[in-house]
Prior knowledge:
69 residues, alpha+beta, three-stranded mixed β-sheet, 3 strands, elongated
Amino acid sequence: MVTRDTTSATEALQLMVQKHFRHLPVCNEEGNVVGLLDITKVFHEALDKVERSSSASEKLYSALAGVQS
């Protein structure tokens, strides 16, 4: 089983957890292996994405609260 180089970190992490994979080859459009994902790195990327999203949401909430007052 492989993943594509266009797959998001969250999708790759979900696949790796469901299939109990620690590593997952990454292929390009031609089917050539261009990398190897490690579950630890993918987990940290997904966590960073969640943290950035949370931070952006907090900033938006603060800005909207300022507009209301």
